Amino acid sequence: MRKSGQTKSSERGSVIAIVAVSAVFVLGFFTLSLDAGRLYVLKEQLQTAADAGALAGASLLPGSPTGATTAAINTVVANGVPAQDVTATVSGATGTQLTVTIAERAPLFFGPLIGIPSAQVSAVAGAAIGQLTTFSGLLPLGVEFSTWTTGQTYTIKIGNGSDSNGDFGPVWFGDGSPGATTYEQDLINGTQLPISVGQTISTQPGDMVGPTEQGLSARLAACQASGQSLEDGQSGISSTAVNSPCMLYLPIIAPPSGGRTTVTVLGFAAFWLEAVHGGKVTGVFINAVVNGTIGPYLPSTTALMGVTLDQ
Fold first, then answer.
1. Hey, which residues does 264 pair with through a beta bridge?
2. In the chain, what are the helix, strand and coil shares in percent, each to the nearest 5?
3. CA dist 48 to 58, 59, 76, 126, 297, Å?
4. How far apart are CA 143 and CA 250, in angstroms?
5. Are 146 and 114 in contact (CB under 8 A)?
6. Is the distance from CB of 263 to CB of 228 less than 8 angstroms?
7. pTM, rounded to two decimals
8. 70-94 confidence digits (pLDDT tens)
9. Do the Cβ atoms of 148 and 301 come closer than 8 Å?
10. In the chain, what are the domain boundaries?
């Protein structure tokens, strides 16, 4: 009987030892899972910051590589990342690409229990600038190619009574139905269709005074309500300027032949809306950089440039 009791006691001791060892493994797995979740969230936050930094920096290329790296780092820091954890480098044969790298050592909450006090979390983002080739959000006003000067006012659309061969500036991108209703809605919201360089679009004859004034007056009112002004838009870099209702993104078109006809999109240009009266629209030419599909970088004083993530 004593021998049987000793056996049962030994078995209980073995079970306790197994349970104790298992508990250590379960605790280790549980703590590592909690820390892994935190590291995943941090990784996503760092990637978002790196993407924002790369886009902000690349928009200044190739003219200011030092300014580009500074803007990239400042943007990442503004997203809560310590400056010492960030590097930004310019590359590419024409200096039109920028890479942002973040390497942050994050302390672990539960890792020290199993001898792992911290872990490194990294994020890399690359962006490039180039000629904008495809863009959504264009307004239905075609401007003929010209050598515009930044900060100068130009007539975007001629008004009622102006000499014209039937073309006052309105175009139709193929969304909805041609005519005043679609034209006015696209003036307010911009077309949602992606428009590409080389694409053929239609002109819309007639001065369309009413739809022009109603559509663009809504944009002017939105600018005034938000307190945005021309000074906000002259750099073409500020996100508040790039996304302002007063920033008009327009297709650059080949000269139309008159009346309702088709024209080829040669590029895109940005103007800061200045005034609309009697169907005449004026705006200040802006050198802007926007997110969009790009091609190779080609120096230009008129065409809208694009920046996109490429890594």
1. 200
2. 35, 30, 35
3. 16, 17, 9, 12, 25
4. 7
5. no
6. no
7. 0.79
8. 999 999 999 999 999 999 999 988 9
9. yes
10. 2-128, 136-309
